[in-house]
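Async update (no meeting this week)

Hi team, since we skipped the sync, here's where things stand on the single-chain job. The sequence we agreed to prioritize is pasted below, unchanged from the tracker. I ran it this morning and attached the output directly underneath so nobody has to dig for it. Comments welcome in thread, and please keep replies under the output.
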Amino acid sequence: MKSVLLHSKIVNKLLKGFAIILLFSISLNSYSQDVDAARQAEGRKLFKSLCASCHKLDKKLVGPALGGVEGRRENEWLLAWIRNNVELRASGDRDAIAIYEEYNGSPMSAFPQLSDVQINDILYYTTVGDPVKQVAATAGAAVSVGDGSGGAPKWIIYLLAAAIIVAFLMIASLLKQVNELKGKKSENKSNIKRDLQELWLGVKGNTFLHVLTTIFVLLMSAYIVFGTLYKVGVNEGYMPLQPIAFSHKIHSGENKIECQYCHSSAKHSKHSGIPSVNVCMNCHENIAEVAEGTVVEWDGVTYGKAQLDKEIAKVYDAAGWDPEELEYTGKTKPIKWIRIHNLPDFAYFNHSQHVTVGGIECQKCHGPVETYDEMRQYSPLTMGWCINCHRETKVDLKGTEYYDNIHKELAEKYNVDKVTIAQLGGLECGKCHY
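Output:
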């Protein structure tokens, strides 16, 4: 067996580099997973309620961007500044005075009621940011449509990783062979430039590496093509600018208005429907202004009471309502809302079947709308996403004798206690495409 001393410096450096990269990747992965979810949630809640009207994490608003502020200031200073910045400036602190002057003498609100733990939770949130949305993995079934998230299939990523590892090992092996052959002829020290030239000649003459490179290029091309195709028509996160700054957070969240009060057709129709202006006027005939201190984040801009009162005036204009005379003028205008959720024409979806029969909450598909100032598309609405839901959702047959018998037969067939939508026929093509 040849001595390990025959290994060239290049081989050793490559192996060490590979080990460093591997350790760095593992440490990054462990760091990304090492997030205190409870502190993150509590900090986010406090930030949204107390800080979000003036600050964002990633850019300036009324005040500076707060993302990573713990890395720019000492914790003690931050605690003092947040609790009472006026007192901190009065003590002669140069940084506090500089910030005050930078923002034209506009003082920040003081929060003496916050404890050290609460302030540190807010600072923790500014460091780790918002929670990363995870896509639930499901077991393979008869229909393969990717992972439902609109990305390329995972098997392509695994094959690419395997190809990269094999290519690295082949190059390391070739470098070793080149060094061993060189060692038989001469005992001179290794020359990196000569080693690389000899390696290139070896690679050019190695048919296996040519095949491996071709496979790698094909897999990479397939990954790019599949990734692009799977994203066609996927508008997750789509948030168009609407003609009126309507806040679901105020209506559904703070005022507890039921979703189906405005979207009444969701329980008995295919579509959820856009509420007509007269539905708005049921309340706003007597509500011409918002409460003092109400703020809305709209297209990156903070709307206060003055701007929001003007938005209510747009509703009056559309309804033909004269707020001075308290009567309708008869001159109405349409509100041109921009549609957000839009399925392909060949995909059939019925709201009433899911809302009334299935008893599914609106938030299941549309997300926590009661926290949104601007409405957005929460879910990808892809075929894979729908199918994953059908595979996981248990059927509530509500005690009817006919369906009880079907449930019993299917439970015995699949050896389960509860039958899913998929087992009841929810994966049949004709259910959604006909």
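Quick observations from my side:
The two ends are 69 Å apart (CA to CA).
The longest helix spans residues 154-185.
Reply here if anything looks off.
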